[in-house]
Amino acid sequence: MTQAVGTVQVETERVIVTEYCFAPGAETGYHVHAHDYVVVPLTSGTLRLVEPSGTRDAPLKAGQSYSRPAGVAHNVINVNDHEFRFIEVELK
Question: Is 15 exposed, middle or buried (0-12, 13-18, 19+ CB in 10 A)?
Fold first, then answer.
């Protein structure tokens, strides 16, 4: 498994801002989000989400943000033939 690379850009008592870079085929590994979070895609493409309820593909467009609550559990996989990047802002 190729691992997605997360680089923390900012961490304060209120937020954590991380840039994630996924090579083609890279994945996060299964994890559970401890905080509410916002994702800001920097590239367009499709990410595969492996969740407790099943697997689904999520088409994302650069600049179209979305948010999710704490407790989301999944593995995120880049199914594109190009690098995929996004910024994740976690709210503590």
Answer: middle
